[in-house]
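Example record

One chain of 379 residues, shown exactly as stored in the release files.
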Amino acid sequence: MLAAAAAALWPAPTTAAFSPTTPRSPPPTLLSFPHRLHQRFHLSATAEGAGTTAAQEGASASASAPSPAAPVDEARLAQFAADWQAARAERDQGKILKLQVLRANSGGLIVRFNSLQGFVPNPLLSPAHWCKDPKRPIQDVTKDLVGSSISVKVVEVNEEERKLVFSEKDASWSTHSSLVKIGDIYDGIVGSVFHYGAFVHLRFPDGSYHLTGLVHISEVSWDLVQDVRDFLNEGDTVKVIVVNIDMEKLRIALSIRQLEEDPLLETLDKVIPLEADQSPTAGIISSPSEADLLPGLEGICNELLQEDGITDVQFGRRALEKRVVSQDLELWLSSVPAKDNQFKLLARAGRQVQELYLTTSLDQEGIKKAVQRVLGRVP
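Predicted structure tokens for this chain:
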């Protein structure tokens, strides 16, 4: 849980504390939290990196300006109690609220909820603010929001600890998530980047960035990715496709890789384009020298000929890739449809690629199973 929090201006003591026979003491204000609470808020904010919270602001001010004594306003105390109850109800109902921004600090925004003040931590703000100018520090962006109203949802209510936390992200999810479908393609801006993935803010047709999804390390590139930070940086513009939506966990899974052609299912026509007067089978070498073959490929070809339904194996063109797809020898079925009972395979190792042509009575699924059996037998 993000530790940034805001507190009510006036804590609500129990009714028993104000009986006619009990002396009334001045009510504590936001600026006079017990030292124990100051310390807890300060430590938790530091641990989460959330910056100064509303409670910390109060702690700082109270050190130099003690709260003046004032008579207790029982009607106001009753209003505070009612507003805490209202906050719990809004949280349980998941309603979207329009709240005024009172001020900003390094950790987020202070907003007004009836007679209470709540906190919107920076990580729970909509990405729309940051994406207007990704180079601006978020603390400068939030200063511009003071005096405006933002749409939020209540995410935490703790009257005892005077914690009232709101999320603009949750409100944005409720409004815009129904517009997102698996297979949709978005322009995006890269936000936080970690070794395991990158968070990308999605640009909607209205030009704003309302939602954020995760591009997992496995969906960044067809190349071998050991650290996403070697491929993506904060502020990069990317194009992504939605691959999964978890409505319960409020998560969107994205992919950059799936918008690129799978290099393992391409033909060599992009690497070695055929001349206009060449036929699709031009350049086929029926019996290349053993030195020309990828290590281990000759044994695989011999095993393929032992499979029922495969009557011939011929070698096609060879090429070098621009990038290393696999260090070990791998065999892939090309995306090109079979023609005249002939299927095309691609053998790959490092940057080398070798075409294989199989003459067979098997269908595509039969070829896949035959290749799997062969690869299981060949060390």
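Notes: Residues 286 and 314 are 5 Å apart (CA to CA).
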